[in-house]
TrEMBL record:
This is Putative spermidine/putrescine transport system ATP-binding protein. Belongs to the ABC transporter superfamily. SUPFAM superfamilies: MOP-like, P-loop containing nucleoside triphosphate hydrolases. It is found in: Cell inner membrane.
Amino acid sequence: MSGLALQNITKQFGTFTAVKNVSLTVPHGTFVCLLGPSGCGKTTLMRMIAGLDLPTEGAIKLDDADITRVPTHKRDLGMVFQSLALFPHLTVGENIAYSLRIRGVGKEDQKKRVDELLSMIHLSGYADRPVAKLSGGQRQRVAIARALAISPKLFLLDEPLSALDAKLREAMQVELRQLQQRLGITTIVVTHDQREAMTMADTVVVMNSGEIRQAAAPVEIYRRPADTFVADFIGMTNLFDFTADSAGRTNALGSSIEGLQVPGGLSKGVLSVRPEDVHLTAPGHGAIAGRVTFVRDLGGTIETFVEAGGKQIVAVSMPHARPDVTVGQDVGIKLSPDACVVLKS
Ligand code: ATP
């Protein structure tokens, strides 16, 4: 298979296991984000892909060749890390040409490639400028161009945008994704920012405690989370217990959930329902009974907090569909069975 394959990778530091039996395939030309809370093992996994650390167990293959023990400089990688490590005393052009020069590429070809890359990152004409005289976003682009100069097989970025302010970061996410699509380069990014992952990735790999909890397309991760950790980590959700009887009837939040059939044999578990799928109605008529405890108007969306069956449930609506409710009011909650994700507790 062309692309990257991680096969049963484990990394131990002494008795501590930072990465546990991780297997993942990254097909050629795809964009993967490793996403998870601090300490979940993202950087450790990335360092092994980069050849900066050796797995305790398992194998890493690039285009079917085993690269587990191949040194970093022979892996055909382009890397950008949080600290961009641009050479401050060199110009933009010299920074980008650096790896070409040490590979013995001729002066004319270096210049051609630098011009090509500068145009790609929208900095044509900046070749002679000292990197110290660039903005944060421009430096970021130069670091990306420098990593891509050798046309690597694999492009690795560890928290590449985290030092930028929020607006610039969002713009750079779109730019990076467009560049990756244009070049068709296999790319892996480490981030703890779920919005960033959802914006850029073909596949989001959600990690926790050294393990992959789910690897899937962003919308799949959001709509069909594999477990309560993923459901809770990605976006906002309502998580609450349910019980099911032998006929498959489901009870949650002190009421039965009409029409929801849980997989056979499951007598209890957890339901995950996104706030935009919670509909508030008049009480009665088979709706779950609740009482409004708080309303938060964020301008673009309105969040209504409702206490039901001892849990706090959040409903999100757009301003044009603002629920006509006030704090203290009794309401009904309607959950469409399609919107309920059944998870094990
Ligand atoms: P962050 O988002 O905070 O960078 P991360 O998901 O990238 O976190 P890692 O840096 O991969 O996490 O670390 C995973 C775990 O392994 C952490 O508990 C960390 O303390 C531990 N760890 C990482 N490197 C070493 C090391 N060289 N020696 C011992 N423990 C380490």
